[in-house]
Recover the amino acids of this structure.
């Protein structure tokens, strides 16, 4: 089932949580709503679910008006950040709940319910825990049970609110890959909320980046990562270095950095900021053939598979961060205080009419 | 002394730098126990020893007095009227306050607390002012031959007012701490409002409800001030147990007064036991799925 969000706004008192959101979720896709806390992503998800009502605007399911449809008639499966399992019920009863509350006419028989629950228990790989209570499960198991409970009613839409937010790093990684595989199998239209860009990039078919109640950009993971539409998206998706400067008729000059920017060909002498991801910078001891920046090594820290190098540039107070692979770092063997040359491989220039 | 030994055991395990010196701990424990003994256990023991001063026969005789029996009946009747009503209103109010946000919510919370902050005598007087002969509705009630003040309805009304906050006050913090997630989950799964209440909300708050009911009941049976104002002290008709105790005491019939009082004291003990069990169960239900958060 496709979801259409049209011009939805919502305020809580003086706080504008959502400002005129338009969004299209095609049937069968897995979409991530990505943004910092307070950007309105959870509010949007709850409005789609029917747990909140929008101040203005409409929600359409398969093109049909659903704004005023009651939660229980929307056929949405909702997975909460803190699981929201019924604490006094066993895993079995939790999963069966949605089926047992149906009116007699549409309720499956006891046997059918039991079969359905066991199929789901197998799907979430906790078959032997049917008789346990939520308190006796680990966080990852609880979230899988919550997912199975939502899937039991065969929802047309699956909505997940920071589903992995309360889990530790390792379990989070496992579970999000499992969710991706599950979605490839059952193809239910899904929307999940996250503030973790890595999670969104890895799991989603499409990413909707939100900030301060508005959508900044939407697209496939590679679109939003490789071609960020706004400085905010650039900044939010990964580590970034800023170079202040000016742009004039298609050429940006930022410190010692000169970049051709055909997209700003019409701009005349305007302030500009160059954005460079920290892994898009090379370091050498001798100057590169093209314009490179002289810098001083300020710090070297090994972060798992990467080595993060802090560089001080003349005229750039904040300095820049460079992520090198272990191989490259080992070959360079950088020492603090050393003079090196840095060259950005990819620079994205934004003029100042964009404000983060 | 069970509490003292467990305390010592846990204190030994604890880091010494964050606990008080042994001497200070013992002085504090001794002070607390002495205070308890002096102001709680001693009076309780006194009630029973006074009640049984003239032996079991006299004790049972005092309880068999027709006026006493009618007082016990009236007290039970009042409790049977008030507890279910306040249970219903308390649950509804707590549900509204804990699970929804609406304008005037804090005003409603204040209103619920009103009976706690008003002296019971004043609450009794309010009803006299409204329903009494000189009151607002007095002449109309008189004309229709309806008696509220100095009759059973007045006693029930006054008790209802005084015991109103108990269930709601107990449930509001419990329901607020449990949040709305489970109810919302039930709704998204297609449950109706009633199904959500009986299958999700109620099981989570049942021990809180029991706790509220037992406190409400204890107060309904033990209320003196408000009931005293509206009762009129008609022997065998509008006397509740606490009023009966007062009358017997004023007549220097100490053994009988304490015998009747011992019923209330017993009720208090039962209340305490149930309360302890309920509190323990509430702790357990709160420690449910959230313990690993």
């Amino acid at each position: 089932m496709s979801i259409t969000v049209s011009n939805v706004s919502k305020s809580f008192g003086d706080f504008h949580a959502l400002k005129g959101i338009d969004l299209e979720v095609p049937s069968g896709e897995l979409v991530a709503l990505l943004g910092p806390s307070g950007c309105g992503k959870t509010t949007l998800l709850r409005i789609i679910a029917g747990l909140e009502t929008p101040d203005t605007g409409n929600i359409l399911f398969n093109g049909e008006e659903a704004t005023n449809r009651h939660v229980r008639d929307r056929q949405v499966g909702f997975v909460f950040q803190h699981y929201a399992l019924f604490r006094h019920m066993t895993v079995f009863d939790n999963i069966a709940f949605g089926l047992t509350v149906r009116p007699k006419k549409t309720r499956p028989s006891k046997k059918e319910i039991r079969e359905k629950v066991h199929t789901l228990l197998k799907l979430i790989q906790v078959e032997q825990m049917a008789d346990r209570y939520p308190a006796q499960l680990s966080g990852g198991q609880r979230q899988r049970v919550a997912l199975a409970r939502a899937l039991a009613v065969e929802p047309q839409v699956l909505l997940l609110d920071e589903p992995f937010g309360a889990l530790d790093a390792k379990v989070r990684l496992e579970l999000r890959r499992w969710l991706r595989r599950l979605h490839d199998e059952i193809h239910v239209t899904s929307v999940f909320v996250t503030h973790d860009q890595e999670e969104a990039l890895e799991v989603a078919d499409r990413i909707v980046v939100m900030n301060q109640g508005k959508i900044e950009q939407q697209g496939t993971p590679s679109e939003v990562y490789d071609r960020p539409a706004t400085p905010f998206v650039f900044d939010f998706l990964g580590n970034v270095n800023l170079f202040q400067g000016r742009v004039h008729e298609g050429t940006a000059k930022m410190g010692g950095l000169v970049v051709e920017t055909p997209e700003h060909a019409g701009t005349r002498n305007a302030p500009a900021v160059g954005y460079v991801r920290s892994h898009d910078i090379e370091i050498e001891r001798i100057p590169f053939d093209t314009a490179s920046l002289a810098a001083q090594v300020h710090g070297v820290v090994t972060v798992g598979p990467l080595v993060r190098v802090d560089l001080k540039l003349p005229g750039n107070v904040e300095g820049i961060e460079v992520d090198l692979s272990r191989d490259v770092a080992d070959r360079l063997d950088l020492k603090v205080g050393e003079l090196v040359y840095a060259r950005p491989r990819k620079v994205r220039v934004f003029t100042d009419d964009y404000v983060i | 002394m069970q509490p003292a030994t467990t305390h010592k055991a846990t204190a030994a395990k604890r880091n010494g730098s964050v606990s008080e010196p042994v001497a200070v701990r013992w002085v504090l424990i001794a002070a607390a126990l002495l205070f308890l003994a002096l102001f709680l256990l001693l009076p309780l023991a006194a009630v029973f020893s006074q009640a049984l001063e003239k032996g079991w026969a006299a004790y049972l005789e005092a309880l068999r007095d027709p006026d006493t029996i009618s007082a016990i009946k009236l007290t039970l009747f009042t409790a049977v009227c008030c507890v279910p009503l306040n249970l219903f209103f308390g649950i509804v109010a707590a549900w509204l306050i804990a699970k929804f946000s609406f304008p005037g919510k804090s005003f409603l919370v204040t209103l619920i607390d009103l009976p706690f902050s008003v002296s019971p005598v004043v609450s009794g007087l309010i009803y006299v002012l409204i329903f009494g002969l000189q009151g607002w509705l007095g002449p109309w009630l008189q004309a229709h031959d309806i008696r509220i003040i100095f009759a059973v309805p007045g006693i029930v009304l006054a008790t209802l007012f005084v015991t109103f906050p108990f269930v709601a006050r107990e449930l509001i913090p419990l329901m607020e701490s449990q949040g709305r997630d489970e109810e919302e989950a039930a709704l998204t799964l297609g449950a109706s409002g009633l199904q959500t209440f009986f299958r999700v909300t109620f099981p989570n708050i049942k021990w809180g409800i029991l706790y509220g009911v037992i406190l409400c009941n204890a107060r309904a049976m033990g209320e003196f001030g408000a009931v005293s104002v509206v009762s009129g002290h008609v022997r065998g008709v509008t006397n509740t147990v606490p009023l009966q105790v007062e009358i017997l005491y004023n007549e220097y019939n100490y053994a009988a007064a304490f015998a009747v009082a011992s019923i209330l004291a017993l009720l208090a003990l039962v209340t305490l036991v149930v309360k302890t069990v309920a509190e323990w169960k509430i702790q357990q239900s709160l420690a449910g799925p959230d313990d690993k958060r």
